[in-house]
Design a protein that fits this description.
The chain has a five-stranded antiparallel beta sheet with strand order 6-7-13-11-12. Strands 1-2-5-3 form a four-stranded mixed beta sheet, with helices on one face. It has three domains: 3-86, Uridine Diphospho-n-acetylenolpyruvylglucosamine Reductase, domain 2 (2-Layer Sandwich), CATH 3.30.43; 93-215, Uridine Diphospho-n-acetylenolpyruvylglucosamine Reductase, domain 3 (2-Layer Sandwich), CATH 3.30.465; 225-300, Uridine Diphospho-n-acetylenolpyruvylglucosamine Reductase, domain 1, CATH 3.90.78.10. The chain contains eight helices and 19 strands. By secondary structure, it is an alpha+beta fold. A hairpin with a 7-residue loop joins strand 17 and strand 18 (264-266). Bound molecules: flavin-adenine dinucleotide. Residues 31, 65-73, 87, 106, 131-134, 136-138, 140-141, 143-145, 186-188, 225-227, 299 line the site of flavin-adenine dinucleotide.
Length: 301
């Protein structure tokens, strides 16, 4: 079915018209600040609306993607031909603690979960402080810092299925591997962390130390930036890119940072095509000079 006909047939149902918009620009919603629109963009305020949108998308054969904070997404110029859904509403971003467990809405900020757990004397997340983004994206991408990823403290997640039902998935079933999970296409709505009781003062001090050291290894200008590559097993992406002499290289209005070249910066006038060209150039040169096939962390929409 051609695109126009497909979208004519799946007009936004009246009951969802106040939460789903057409042709919404995604550029202001992603860290790189570039890219085309989402055909439909939804900001549901509760689980019932998320269910309705999910079922509507499935019934109309519309691809569906979740947008967190947009720190790890590059949107192509053509945009996303489907439904993009934000889980930033209070109903899907709350945090609660019971015993040693922290339950977090997938749309909540990872940094809020870290601060809340440390304040309650629960350790296990503090090394992830400063990683931008939401809890849901952190789990789906198995974020890591200092060689430790998020997986050991994830007890279970709740995901929404295409028919709107919620299914609980245990840690073992998530299929965590380095910077990946086997959750392709799943929508995480909630995460339960199993944490370690500790002294809140000692945990807070540790958090502050980690925060200071993390900030010292970031480019001064944190706007319109992405971390495109996964560190290979034997060497960091930063060192690898420096070693092959690609620090600071430019493709149109996109460049790698000169001192922290594992960060890509979109300057005024940058386009998604330029980002993709720069990424290809880096991967090609690294492969040619070292034999290492740099894998992408950045999700290309
Ligand atoms: C300056 C900077 C520093 C960074 N440092 C690190 C670091 O130290 N370690 C590290 O691992 N990463 C790092 N990253 C990458 C990034 O922060 C992580 O990938 C983060 O988890 C992305 O979160 P987000 O909410 O912005 O996700 P988004 O960019 O919005 O989405 C990323 C992907 O997750 C999917 N997703 C989002 N929410 C859900 C959900 N609820 N259910 C299912 N899928 C979902 C999206 O569909 C998309 O495919 C860094 C990025 C930047 C820009």
């Amino acid at each position: 079915m051609n695109r126009a006909l497909r979208y004519y047939r799946c007009m936004i149902p009246e009951r969802l018209q106040h939460v789903v918009r057409s042709d919404e620009s995604l550029a202001p919603l992603v860290w790189l600040g570039i890219g085309g629109p989402a055909h439909f963009f939804a900001e549901p305020v509760d689980i019932e609306q998320i269910t309705e949108i999910t079922v509507w998308a499935a019934e109309n054969d519309l691809p569906l993607r979740i947008l967190g904070s947009g720190s790890n997404v590059l949107v192509r110029e053509s945009g996303f031909d489907g439904v993009v859904i934000s889980l930033a509403a209070a109903a899907t971003s709350g945090l609660s603690i019971e015993g040693d467990c922290l339950t977090a809405g997938a749309g909540g900020k990872l940094s809020h979960a870290v601060v809340k757990s440390v304040g309650a004397g629960l350790g296990g997340l503090e090394h992830l402080m400063g990683i931008p983004g939401t809890v849901g994206a952190a789990v789906v991408g198995n974020v890591s810092s200092g060689g430790r990823d998020i997986s050991p403290v994830v007890k279970a997640i709740r995901v929404m299925e295409a028919d709107g039902s919620i299914r609980e998935i245990s840690q073992e079933e998530i299929g965590f591997t380095y910077r990946k999970t086997s959750l392709t296409g799943a929508m995480i709505v909630e995460v339960v962390f199993q944490l370690e009781p500790g002294d809140p003062v000692a945990l807070t001090k540790r958090l502050q130390k980690l925060w200071i050291s993390r900030n010292s290894t970031r480019p001064a200008d944190m706007e319109r930036i992405a971390m495109p590559f996964i560190d290979p097993d034997t060497i960091s992406a930063l060192e690898l890119i420096q070693n092959v002499g690609l620090a600071g290289i430019r493709e149109g209005d996109v460049s790698l940072d000169s001192s922290q070249p594992h960060y890509m910066i979109a300057h005024q006038g940058a386009t998604s095509d330029q980002c993709l060209k720069l990424i290809d150039r880096v991967r090609e040169q690294v492969l040619l000079q070292t034999g290492i096939d740099l894998q992408l962390n950045l999700q290309i929409w």
